[in-house]
C-alpha cells in the first residue's frame, strides 16, 4: 500500500514538473516569437525606407568634345555625395544609362525619337533610415544639393513622410503587443508555479512546524524551479529557432539577419524564463510560510 502511494506521488510530481516545463516553453516560445517579429519589423522598416531614393541631377547642357572632362567632374561629385552623412548608398547614372531607362519605360526600341544625350546624368541616392524622417529629410536634401556639380535634386517628400509615419505606427503596435506578451508570460508562468507549490503547501508547513528555517525550506524549491526554468527556456528556444530557420529557408528575407541581436534575444529569453520561474517560486512558497495551518485548507 505504502509503495502504491509513493509511486502515485512520484507520478503526480513528474506530471506536475512536465506541465510546468511545457507551460514555460510555450510561453517563452510566444514571447521569443514576438521578439523576432519586433527585430525583423524594425529591419524591414529600415529596408523599405532605403528604397525611397532621391535623384540628384547634373547640368543637362552637354558638349561632346568636353565629355572626358565632364565625366571626371561628375565622378568627383559622385564620390563626394557617397561620403555625405545622410547617404546610405549612391548610384551614378550616366546619360547613356538614363536614355536606356527612358526607352525601356516608354517601350521604345530605337533612338529615332530622341538623341541619347538629351537626358542628364544623375546620382540616385538612398538615404539612411534615420534620415527618412520629416524633421531630417529637408536637411539631407540640402546637403546633396549643396554638392558642387549638382544643379537639381528631386524627391517625393510627401511619399517619404507618409511611409515614415505608417511604418512608425506599425512598429508602435508591434512594440505594444510585445509588452503585452511579456506581461502575459509573467502571469502564465507565475500561475503554473503557484499551482505546483499549492500542491506542496502541507509539506512546506510541516517542515516549518518541525523547526526548519525558511531559507532551508526555500532552497530545494528554488533549485528545482531554476532547473525547470532552464529546461523550459531551452525547449522554447529550440522550437522557436527551429521554426524560424524553416521560415527563413522557405520564404527568405530581403535583408541579412543580425546575429548579435539574435544572441541578445536568446540570452534575454533564457534569463527571463529562469528569473520568472525562480521568483514566482519564492513568492508562492513564502506565501505558505507566512500563513497559518488553518489557512492552508482555504487557500
Describe the protein's architecture and organization.
The chain has 299 residues and is of the alpha+beta class. The chain folds into two domains: 2-47 and 164-297, no CATH class; 53-155, Alpha-Beta Plaits (2-Layer Sandwich). The protein is built from eight helices and four strands; from the N terminus they run H-E-H-E-H-E-H-E-H-H-H-H. A four-stranded antiparallel β-sheet has the order 2-3-1-4. The two termini are 30 Å apart.
- List how many beta strands DSSP finds: 4
- CA radius of gyration is 32 Å
Mean pLDDT: 78
Structural class: alpha+beta
Low-confidence stretches: none
Name the shape in a single word.
Answer: rod-shaped
Strand order within the widest sheet?
2-3-1-4
Major beta-sheet overview: 4 strands, antiparallel
The helix/strand order is HEHEHEHEHHHH
**Number of discrete helical segments:** 8
Q: What is the share of helical residues?
A: 55-70%
Strand content: 5-15%
Tell me the distance between the termini. Answer: 30 Å
Number of domains: 2
Give the topology, please.
Elements: H1 2-50, E1 53-58, H2 67-82, E2 87-93, H3 95-106, E3 122-127, H4 137-145, E4 150-154, H5 157-198, H6 201-209, H7 214-250, H8 259-290
Antiparallel strand pairs: 1-3, 1-4, 2-3
Helix pairs in contact: 1-5, 1-7, 1-8, 5-8, 7-8
Characterize this entry briefly:
With 299 residues, this protein is of the alpha+beta class. Helices cover 69% and strands 8% of the residues. The chain is built from eight helices and four strands, in the order H-E-H-E-H-E-H-E-H-H-H-H.
Amino acid at each position: 500500500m505504502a509503495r502504491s502511494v509513493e509511486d502515485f506521488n512520484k507520478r503526480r510530481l513528474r506530471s506536475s514538473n512536465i506541465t510546468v516545463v511545457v507551460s514555460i516553453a510555450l510561453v517563452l516560445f510566444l514571447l521569443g516569437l514576438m521578439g523576432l517579429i519586433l527585430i525583423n519589423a524594425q529591419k524591414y522598416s529600415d529596408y523599405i525606407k532605403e528604397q525611397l531614393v532621391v535623384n540628384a541631377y547634373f547640368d543637362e547642357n552637354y558638349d561632346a568634345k568636353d565629355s572626358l572632362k565632364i565625366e571626371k567632374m561628375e565622378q568627383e561629385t559622385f564620390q563626394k555625395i557617397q561620403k555625405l552623412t545622410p547617404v546610405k548608398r549612391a548610384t551614378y547614372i550616366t546619360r547613356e544609362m538614363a536614355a536606356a531607362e527612358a526607352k525601356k519605360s516608354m517601350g521604345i526600341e530605337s533612338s529615332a525619337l530622341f538623341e541619347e544625350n538629351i537626358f542628364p546624368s544623375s546620382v540616385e541616392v538612398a538615404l539612411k533610415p534615420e534620415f527618412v524622417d520629416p524633421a531630417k529629410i529637408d536637411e539631407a536634401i540640402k546637403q546633396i544639393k549643396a554638392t558642387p556639380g549638382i544643379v537639381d535634386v528631386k524627391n517625393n517628400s510627401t511619399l517619404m513622410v507618409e511611409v515614415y509615419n505608417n511604418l512608425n505606427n506599425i512598429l508602435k503596435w508591434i512594440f505594444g503587443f510585445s509588452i503585452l506578451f511579456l506581461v502575459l508570460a509573467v502571469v502564465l508562468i507565475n500561475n503554473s508555479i503557484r499551482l505546483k507549490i499549492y500542491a506542496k503547501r502541507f509539506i512546506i508547513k510541516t517542515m516549518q512546524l518541525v523547526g526548519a528555517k525558511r531559507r532551508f525550506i526555500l532552497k530545494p524549491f528554488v533549485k528545482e524551479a531554476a532547473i525547470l526554468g532552464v529546461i523550459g527556456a531551452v525547449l522554447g528556444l529550440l522550437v522557436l529557432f527551429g521554426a524560424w530557420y524553416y521560415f527563413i529557408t522557405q520564404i527568405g528575407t530581403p535583408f541579412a539577419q543580425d546575429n548579435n541581436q539574435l544572441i541578445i534575444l536568446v540570452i534575454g529569453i533564457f534569463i527571463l524564463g529562469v528569473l520568472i520561474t525562480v521568483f514566482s517560486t519564492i513568492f508562492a512558497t513564502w506565501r505558505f510560510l507566512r500563513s497559518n495551518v488553518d489557512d492552508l485548507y482555504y487557500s
